[in-house]
Design a protein that fits this description.
Blueprint lengths: L5 E4 L1 H18 L6 E7 L3 H9 L5 E10 L10 E5 L9 E9 L3 H11 L5 E9 L12 E5 L5 E2 L15 E3 L5
Parallel strand pairs: 2-3, 2-5, 5-6, 6-7
Antiparallel strand pairs: 1-9, 3-4, 8-9
Helix pairs in contact: 1-2
Bound molecules: inosinic acid.
Amino acid sequence: MTGSAKVLISEAQIRARVAELGAQISHDYRDAGELMMVGILKGSFIFLADLARALAIPRRVDFLSISSYGLRGNKAGALRLILDLREPIRNRHVLVVEDIVDTGHTLAYLLEMLAARHPASLKTCALVTKPSRRERHVPIEYVGFEIPDAWVVGYGLDYKDRYRTLPYIGVIEPDQ
Ligand code: IMP
């Protein structure tokens, strides 16, 4: 079931920001040859689909998935890779595409794991970030939206696997 949520970032705002990010990334990687976009499942699938099509440079797409034990605010030790990339990234320009960065533990774990594979470059694009919740410093070169501490859903983001297909980003109460 998909419920509704109070609109925080509208469909039009998302569309405009994804176009801006696409233009900026295309410009920054114009001499890079080919960009390898790495989407983090499940939350990034809609953002990645739109961002990949907003680029004007050669790009390919791969995915990986991380599971976290327990609830939000996990420490890095509680994270585990459950689906790996299909392709090697050595000497490739890699852009990690994340739905949201909250405490930063997930992204820190991912960046460490991917850096060990010796890509030519490694950067991150996050649709949403909540800077006030950060526990680990993580570099995020491309940010869609900075938001205050709230649980957001829609445009790929879920609450208990619901709301992912809402076309906007909205706020729900965690016990709703
Ligand atoms: P972090 O490791 O605390 O940065 O958490 C990152 C992960 O927590 C994200 O990839 C999401 O899966 C999930 N998450 C954190 N905040 C939200 C939210 O507001 N809505 C939906 N998922 C969230």
